[in-house]
Amino acid sequence: MITKLNFTDHTIKSYAIRKLTPSECFRLMGVRQDVINVMQSTNAQAAERMPGTEGKGKPTDMAVSVSQQYKQAGNSIVVDVLKAIYAQLWYPKPPNPQAQLSMFDAFFPEDALPLHPVDTPEGEKVIITAFSGYDSQLMAADALREDHPNFRWTCMGWSDIDKNACQMHNIVFPQYADRALGDITKIDWHKVKQSLQGREVDLFTYSSPCQDISQAGKQMGLKEGSDTRSALLWRVADAIEVLKP
Predict the structure, then answer these.
(1) At a CB cut-off of 8 Å and minimum separation 6, what does 62 contact?
(2) Which pLDDT does position 11 carry in this prediction?
(3) In 3D, which of 125, 187, 141, 142 has the Cα closest to residue 160?
C-alpha cells in the first residue's frame, strides 16, 4: 500500500504492507457475503440466532474475535472447490464419447474407464462432516443450490473440538447445533447410524489437521497410531466402516 507518492517524478517515497481483512480472507475461501455477515455477528446478534450463546465483551462486540476469524479461514476449505466436487458427484455432465478415447484406451481397450452415468439426485441428501470448523462442507452444499435450486440436503452430524470453531458453526448453522458429535476419538458411530433411523449417508466429509505434514509441524507425519494431530485422519476409517457412505 503506497503511503507517499512523489507526483513530480512518480516515484514512491514510502509504502506499507496492508493485511487482508477477515472479510477478505473469507471471500478468498469462497464464503458468500450474506454468510460472512452472519459469521461476523455481534454478541447480541449471535445470542438471537443461537439462544444461550455467550460471547466475551459488550453486546456490540463481535462474537468471534478477529484473530479467531483469521485462524478459521486459514483452516478451512474453499467453498467453490467443494461445490465443484459435489456437482461432479451429483450432477455430472454428459460424457463426450470422443473425449473418452485416448492413446491409452487405444492400446489397452480392456482397461478403458466406463462412461460415468448421468444422474440427478432424488430426495434429501444426508451429509455428515468431521473436523468441521465453520463447515465450508455444508456451505458448499448450500452453494450447489445456486446452479441446482431443487437440490435438498440435511446435516445429521458434525464434529469439532475447537470451542471457537464450534461457536462459529452454531452461529452459521444454529439448526444443527444439537447434532454436534464432539471429539472424533470418542464418537460411537454405531449410535450415529442408529440415529439415522435407516437413512443412508450420502456424503461423509472430513478435513483433518495438516500441521504435522508441514515443516512448521516438524514433519511428524500422519502415520496411524503416531498420536499426531494429522494422524487423526485414521479415525474416519471407523466411521466409513460403520456408515458406509
Answers:
(1) 40, 41, 42, 43, 55, 69
(2) 80
(3) 187
Q: Which of 24-28, 101-105, 195-199 bottoms out in mean pLDDT, i.e. has the lowest?
A: 101-105
Beta bridge partners of 62: 42
Q: What share of the chain is helix, strand, coil (3-state, %, to 5)?
A: 45, 10, 45
Residue 17 is given by DSSP the state P
Instruction: Count other Cβ atoms within 10 Å, centred on residue 55.
Output: 20
51 half-sphere exposure, CB direction, 13 A CA radius? 0
pTM over 0.90: no
- What is the CB neighbour count within 10 angstroms for residue 5? 13
As given in the structure block, the three cell numbers for residue 112 are 478403458
Write the pLDDT tens digit of every residue in 48-104. Answer: 998 877 778 899 999 999 999 999 999 899 999 999 999 999 998 876 665 555 666
**Helix ranges restricted to H, 50-161:** 66-74, 79-90, 97-100, 103-107, 136-144
